[in-house]
Inverse folding.
């Protein structure tokens, strides 16, 4: 399983237009792998990504029910809301980033740094990406900033955003020419504290309810 990120001939408008020319050649990643702990299997989730010289564009389209969104502060626990997430490891063993955005456009962004024998026990050390960097992520969201009470009826919502490569380079150093690179990552959907909690992924995962498992990331290739 792999996802191929095409170079966008035109810059996406960040207006939630799924079929606009900038996105028409982008392959669609369907999120179909529900974790066993899910109380519902109702959402239908699709994701796309493209890139230009200065960064990556990511687009989620969600057909959902029981939509709830109350977190409004940067770095709040948006996974408790109706939320879409993109986890990505640009350099093998260099650590990964989790971009978590709820239906109202609130962002949580961490860099998870691989620990070494000198820096501590095996695993990853979470580093909160400061607002000075986080605010560079440009986000479109189709729903209001807050959705409360919960929308029980079938509802489509979209989140589209731009991630400048400079955010990655702040932690990893210069990335070099992007065409031809192979990163690793996964696309997720969750809704921890809605009335129908669920967790699903694009690339298959194991039985543990934990998205922070890079061993389940799949290749993400940048086409020239």
């Amino acid at each position: 399983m792999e996802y191929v990120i095409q170079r966008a001939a035109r810059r996406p408008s960040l207006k939630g237009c799924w079929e606009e020319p900038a996105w028409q050649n982008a392959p669609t990643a369907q999120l179909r792998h529900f974790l066993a702990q899910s109380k519902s299997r109702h959402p239908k989730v699709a994701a796309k990504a493209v890139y230009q010289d200065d960064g990556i564009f990511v687009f989620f389209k969600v057909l959902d029910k029981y939509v709830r969104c109350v977190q409004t502060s940067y770095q709040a626990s948006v996974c408790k809301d109706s939320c879409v997430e993109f986890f990505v490891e640009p350099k093998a063993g260099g650590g990964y980033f989790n971009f978590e955005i709820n239906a109202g456009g609130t962002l949580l962004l961490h860099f998870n740094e691989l620990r070494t024998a000198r820096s501590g026990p095996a695993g990853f050390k979470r580093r909160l990406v400061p607002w000075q960097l986080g605010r560079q992520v440009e986000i479109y969201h189709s729903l209001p900033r807050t959705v409360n009470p919960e929308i029980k009826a079938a509802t489509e919502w979209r989140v589209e955003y731009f991630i400048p490569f400079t955010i990655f380079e702040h932690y990893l150093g210069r990335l070099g020419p992007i065409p031809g690179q192979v990163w690793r990552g996964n696309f997720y959907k969750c809704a921890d504290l809605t009335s129908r909690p669920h967790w699903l992924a694009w690339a298959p995962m194991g039985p543990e309810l934990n998205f922070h498992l890079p061993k389940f990331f799949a290749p993400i290739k940048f086409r020239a």
Summary: The first strand starts at residue 3 and ends at 7. The longest helix spans residues 165-172. The chain has one domain: 3-219. The helical segments are 131-134, 165-172.
